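yo

u said u wanted the structure for the complex thing, so here. seqs first:
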Amino acid sequence: MPVLAAMRKKWRCYAFLIPVFIPLIVFGYLPAIEAFKLSFTDSAGAFVGLQHIRDMFADRKLIRSVSVMLKLLVAGMLTANIPALLMAELLYNLRSKRASANYRFLFIIPMMIPTLVIYLVWQFMIFESSYGLANALLKALGMKPLGWLNDSSTAIISLVLIGFPWISGTNLLIYLAGLQSIPQSVLESCQLDGANFWQRFVKIDLPLLVGQLKLLLILGIINGMQAFQLQLMTTQGGPRNATMVPGLWMYRQAFVFSNFNYASAIGLSMFLVVLVLTIISNWLINTDVSQ
Amino acid sequence: MTQHLIKRKTFEFLKHFVIIILLIITFCPLVVMVIKSFKNMEQNMYTPFLPSWPIYPENYTIAWLHVGHSIANSMINTIVSTLIILALAAMGAYVFGAFRFPGKDFLYFMVISLLMIPGILTLVPMFLLSSRIGILNTKLAIILPGIRAQLPFGVFLLTAFVKGLSREIFEAAEIDGAGMGSIFVRIVVPLIRPMLATLAILCVLFFWNDIIWPNIALMKESEYTIAVALKPFTDANTDDTVRNYGPVMAAYVIVSIPLLVAFFCASNQFIEGMTSGALKM
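structre next:
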């Protein structure tokens, strides 16, 4: 057997891979397989077929949470990309390269603050109804204070506002790096043609940033569909389920109501949707690159 | 000509102006957080956002008593997980990047396909598994699943880099009679050091900021990480009867310090890591 002989000759390669695969199998593949098993059985381990999937379609809280998720997903994509892209353009177009680097440095500093601290600062310091910064500003402007996260009509918009002006993030660095990789010759010929800032932005920068834009949009969709840590730490899905998303509903089914099987079925469904979207978007990217 | 120059100067000034305004808005919550952290209860009610005297540094003592140990836990978990991931990812990348052997493509695919399995699918089974093997409420509950979360990306990132290294380096070392182990330690690791730094920074940011899993896996106060400890401490100080924001904000400031210090010590690596790591995804 030539294959066996080759394998024996390269046994050291396999030996090197053993410690790599142990954690991946135990904490990656086994839980993934168990997720399938849990999704089609009941708490006693008996096979129930598609029962949990049928329950999901009858679960009105879950259905409603999908539309909340979609709203937050769209808003999150806009807030994570547009301000970062515009600020990257501003920094890139500064005449002084030193000032540009200094501003970039300053915008990175808030990224070092733990995400949870940002969430809690917004919840308890800005959106707090009696002593919060947001209502103090509204009062100073002569407007009525709002309930923000505690009011079901403003809860979603408040979640979106967290992190305003949404500049300080990795996206800024990615867009800036993308702009900086535009060849100098392209910019020079553009300048010779007398193109103004706006023309250059639309005709040169955006087409050359298409790779970054696509990557960040796809990551935004994949992560946005599953995201629930913000709600877990702030609203718990409330008030009156106004901010409930499928991920958090799965979490609550599992860790509040101990419905591990039903929760797994929700997780599995979300995984399948994310997988399909990832495959479609990868396919879209690859067809574009080959052109 | 001068008119053109004036126009350009004004435009330049406007750009700086907009950037600075946005920087101020970005930093405003953080500055107010620091200001509030030095106030007692009355000051936080009557002058909630501007500095007031006397200042109350004892808020920091109170906060430290409640969240200090969680910083130590977060640091241990972050450093241990990151070091293990670096070692394992480098080993995997060396084998996948520098050798041919039967089953290589399949094994590499096994690693990479884990990138496609999101945390949401495995959250519940991971909890049940961790509970079965008895690692809940220990540091292992964070470290072992954490390795799984970041190792596939690490192998992916480093393998591409090892593949780009010149084959002659490995061949020369083999002719000199060096074994796989010594080539790995003496040649591969030094050569991939820049990519290891990138991976290290991505891992540190991931573990430091991870919220959901620690909140599921850790229920024992002595094992809390910062992502678990802050919320109960906040709730205890801000219910309807007490609104003692001073120590709460002090706690937020304290837990922010370690990563800020790390960033100021190695800001270039951080910027490089955060930019290139995300681009390679």
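Chain B has 13 helices and no strands. The two ends of chain B are 48 Å apart (CA to CA).
cya
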